[in-house]
Amino acid sequence: MKAWPLLAIVIVQGILFAAHLLVVYTWIAFFPGLAPSTAHALRVAVLALSFSFVVAALLNFRHSNRFVSAFYTLACIWLGFLNYFFLGACITWPLWYLMRALGSGIDPLNQPNLDRPILAGVIAAIGVIAGAYALINARRIRERLIRIELPGLPEQWRGRRAVLMSDLHLGNINKAGFCRKVVALAARHQPDVVFIPGDLYDGSTAKLDWLIAPLKELKPRFGIFFSTGNHEEFHDAGDYVAAIRKAGIHVLANECVTIDGLHVLGINYHEATFPLRVRATLERLSPGAGQPSILLNHAPVRLPIVEDAGIALQLSGHTHGGQFFPYTWLTQRIFGPFTHGLHKFGKLQVYTSTGAGTWGPPMRLGAAPEIVVMEFERAES
After folding, report:
1. Per the confidence metrics, is the pTM higher than 0.90?
2. What is the SS3 assignment for the chain?
3. 252-284: per-residue pLDDT in tens?
């Protein structure tokens, strides 16, 4: 293994260990009535759980079977709940000291230890409720309907529909049944074309053909178009691309196609990380300003370059809208308004989807999963 992946694993594991340590220390401190044996068992269990996600993630990238799928799913769910238990622990301590400073009214006998379980119990319960809701919400895929105006749109494209489905993250959590559900939602709208701007797979070793098989049932008039995301490029993207092509999906690897007068371009995720390569690729592929052109670019980045190339619309995913709080806030700080939805960057329109699937914890809180149904109109000059 190269040095930098090993260093990343050590850093992530260290952060997880510290977070678990704070949680278990808080629980024991705020429930002083626990028997010593119970407190010891709790320490052992929680600290053992601190290694679960890293171990499960490493197995997920190299193996695909029922044990790995179940272990990875449970580890990811625990990681999601840990997020809220950790936030709760961070809130519990300052609240406790504030209550002590102000004089809590919870305990009329002024016995501080009676306040502790109430405070910690309420905050932990809120964490459980938030995590449970996030699990349910992640499976409630919304259908967004929007109108897109493109300059120079051919008359035959007026009123036609495209479905944007990004970030399905098919693998050991989102399996073929999940793919079938997304396909059924898309098929209801009878799209003329379907766009998938990356992260169709989650990067794991899995039964690639089986996972993607439901997409063969989706038969839009002009086909399905795909460009790679970062999760297809965790390893050699060749296996994923081969499976996607085998399913009848058009892979746009730094390519441009014209479908009935509409120009559709796709750029690989790795290519998009280098501004000079993006500029060179778009100079070669772009039909120019005023043309009805759509770029599949996994992340909502390189917008000045894309606008300069005269692209009319960029379709992206990647952000998940932050997926669940508090990362929703962090993602907004990174991508700003382009975290989600339709926005303009000069003459360029950008739609960033929150995606249909999840990565890591199968949770959504503050960022709903979606597919996007776009109806095309011609922009008035």
Report:
1. yes
2. CCHHHHHHHHHHHHHHHHHHHHHHHHHHHHCCCCCHHHHHHHHHHHHHHCCHHHHHHHHHHHCCCHHHHHHHHHHHHHHHHHHHHHHHHHHHHHHHHHHHHHCCCCCCCCCHHHHHHHHHHHHHHHHHHHHHHHHHHCCCCEEEEEEEEECCCCHHHCCCEEEECCCCCECCCECHHHHHHHHHHHHCCCCCEEEECCCCECCCCCCHHHHHHHHHHCCCCCCEEECCCHHHHCCCCHHHHHHHHHCCCEECCCEEEEECCEEEEECCHHHHCCHHHHHHHHHHHCCCCCCCEEEECCCCCCHHHHHHCCCCEEEECCCHHHCECCHHHHHHHHHHHHHCEEEEECCEEEEECCCCCCCCCCCCECCCCEEEEEEEEECCC
3. 999 999 999 999 999 999 999 999 999 999 999
